[in-house]
Backbone:
């Protein structure tokens, strides 16, 4: 942990850290994007401003080099669309998007490599072509850039929030109102660093939701995200005291989870829409529910 020198006061994070650590601005920007730059204990964006005396904590890349991408088939990963610029997949549960320290399971980029698909070389070595992410425990639709042009266009689209991300979640109880917006800042949990929480002064986070089907003890909810914070949906609904069914990390009822046969949160990236990077036409893709989520939904419907 290092104090921000007086000479860097007011500078952007990417420019100031590049000067301070002797790294390129690109590398610092990637570190910030990955949540590896903390300023006074909070994740800092590359364009945030440094303040003299603030405490910096930077997790640097492994000096041994980038993490190797292992090409191995991913069971259950479906390719929904493939062209010269993009590949759209339905990600199964238990699959990370790209390799990371400590992760030994399958990855999307490894699965695409095993399928013989060449993706964009933009981005850090272990996550080339990756323009957005889903948690390993979350299933659903996601896009990976195959061309450098597509990478640039899609990264901008996600940053500028012109991508339409639709999720389905089954949450405990019945949210009131049945349609609404959750506007609450999110940051690392103050006591448990593996979790996130609604925290005053955290990063702005906005979730729109609508209940589309109600059951005795739960509700199927359609969700649109304005922002894309880590664990955003899980954190926001937990804060409302309506956690995703099966999400024991964020306070879900373990008895209900066992009854429905769930070993993870009932959360699925259902649809993804964006302007195609090749010609700007609007395209939209949909991923069907995987069997564990579909089975839980059938049980809830049978009891109505």
Residues:
């Amino acid at each position: 942990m290092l104090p921000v020198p007086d000479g860097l006061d007011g500078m952007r994070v990417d420019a100031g850290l590049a000067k301070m650590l002797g790294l390129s601005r690109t590398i610092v920007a990637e570190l910030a994007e990955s949540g590896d730059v903390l300023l006074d204990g909070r994740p800092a964006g590359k364009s945030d401003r440094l303040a003299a005396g603030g405490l910096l904590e930077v997790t640097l890349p492994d000096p041994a080099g980038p993490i190797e991408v292992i090409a191995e088939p991913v069971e259950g990963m479906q390719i929904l669309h493939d062209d010269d610029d993009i590949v759209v997949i339905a990600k199964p549960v238990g699959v990370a998007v790209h390799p990371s320290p400590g992760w030994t399971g399958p990855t999307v980029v490894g699965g695409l490599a095993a399928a013989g698909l060449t993706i964009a070389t933009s981005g850090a070595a272990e996550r080339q072509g990756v323009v957005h992410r889903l948690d390993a425990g979350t299933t659903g639709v996601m896009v990976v850039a195959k061309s450098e042009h597509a990478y640039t266009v899609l990264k901008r689209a996600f940053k500028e929030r012109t991508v339409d991300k639709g999720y389905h979640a089954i949450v405990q109880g019945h949210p009131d109102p049945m349609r609404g917006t959750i506007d609450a800042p999110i940051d690392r949990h103050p006591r448990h660093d593996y979790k996130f929480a609604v925290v005053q002064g955290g990063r702005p986070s906005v979730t729109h939701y609508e209940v589309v089907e109600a059951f005795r003890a739960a509700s199927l909810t359609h969700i649109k995200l304005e922002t894309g914070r880590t664990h955003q949906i899980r954190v926001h609904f937990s804060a409302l005291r309506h956690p995703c069914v099966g999400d024991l990390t964020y306070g879900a009822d373990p008895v209900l989870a066992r009854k429905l046969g769930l070993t993870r949160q009932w959360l699925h990236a259902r649809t993804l829409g964006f302007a195609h990077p090749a010609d700007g036409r609007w395209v939209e893709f949909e991923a069907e529910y995987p069997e564990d989520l579909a089975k839980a939904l059938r049980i809830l419907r049978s009891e109505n």
Remarks:
- The radius of gyration is 20 Å.
- The longest helix spans residues 148-159.
- The chain has a mean pLDDT of 90.
